[in-house]
Design goal:
By secondary structure, the protein is α/β, with parallel strands linked by helices. 40% of the residues lie in helices and 14% in strands. The chain is globular, with a radius of gyration of 18 Å. Bound molecules: nicotinamide-adenine-dinucleotide. Nicotinamide-adenine-dinucleotide binds next to helix 1 and strand 5.
């Protein structure tokens, strides 16, 4: 029970297929108390039954694309729940019409919105997090290998993830003196609502399964357990890191199958 007595916030639960759900399950199994934010009233209603599995707290509304919403949500958490030990940022968005075809067709509006929701929102989360974590704490965001190498159709989301990964290093430096750690998990592909917007996603799943040293795709549990570790005191010396949880896919360039 490495999270016994710890309380934290999960941002980005959409349904049972969400990576945030796997993280919540793992954190709960290790004794953590959980609070959730939701983008809209519509999503809040959709996840209210799921959130009950993890506790009785009210879901707090927070559309991270809007000015002031993160600060407002955090003030509400401080008043109703008190201090936190950890925050999970499992949020990204880009127009799915531009997650296919050539990257250069990305529109300015979609470029800016993808950066705002998928990258800047984590910077803002980290700006207000120390207020909730006077005794220190830990934050984790989610990224993907498309930030490092070209993955067809990932397009503008790849740029947002590159910026997010760089910001993890700067944010870890900013928050280190407050004893707040900041890390990212680079998760292997997993079929979720957000992922289904990426063109030919099932092909990405298949290729990564083939390339994986473990010969399988990553699961919600793989990601959840790694996240729990990073949020726990067991990872007290780890900050500013991008940890790959992808069954080793990122380590394999071209895979040669031995002839049998
Ligand atoms: P998901 O659709 O279940 O979750 C995405 C969440 O982002 C949703 O809950 C949605 O409400 C939230 N969101 C979008 N715009 C928002 C806004 N303006 N304000 C507040 N919340 C907003 O999909 P997921 O795959 O679980 O995605 C979670 C994270 O994991 C994302 O950062 C994604 O890029 C990352 N990731 C996913 C994969 C994958 O293959 N699924 C791989 C690596 C990284």
């Amino acid at each position: 029970m490495i999270m016994q007595g710890k309380k934290g916030l999960i941002m980005g639960l959409a349904n049972k297929f969400s990576i945030a759900y796997g993280i919540a399950e793992s954190l709960k199994s290790q004794g953590a108390e959980l609070i959730f934010t939701s983008q809209t009233e519509y999503f809040k209603n959709k996840i209210s039954d799921i959130a009950k599995e993890f506790g009785k707290r009210e879901i707090i509304l927070c559309d991270v694309s809007k000015d002031g919403e993160i600060e407002k949500a955090f003030d509400e958490i401080l008043q109703t729940v008190g201090n936190l030990d950890f925050i999970v940022h499992s949020i990204a968005f880009a127009d799915k019409n531009e997650l296919t075809g050539k990257y250069y067709n990305t529109s300015r509006a979609n470029f800016l919105n993808a950066m705002n929701v998928s990258c800047f929102s984590f910077t803002e989360t980290c700006k207000y997090a120390p207020k909730l974590m006077p005794n220190g704490g830990s934050l984790v965001t989610l990224t993907y290998y498309g930030s490092e190498k070209v993955v067809p159709n990932y397009n503008v989301m790849a740029l947002a993830k590159s910026a997010l990964e760089t910001s993890v290093r700067y944010l870890a430096t900013d928050l280190g003196e407050s004893h707040v750690r900041v890390n990212a998990i680079s998760a292997g592909p997993i079929k979720t609502l957000a992922a289904s917007g990426v063109g030919e996603f099932s092909k990405i799943l298949e290729i990564e399964r083939f390339r994986s040293p473990l010969r399988r795709n990553v699961t919600q549990k793989d990601i959840g357990d790694a996240c729990t570790f990073l949020l726990s005191d067991m990872a007290s010396g780890i900050t500013g890191e991008i940890i790959h949880v992808d069954c080793g896919c990122n380590t394999v360039g071209v895979k040669f199958e031995p002839k049998s």
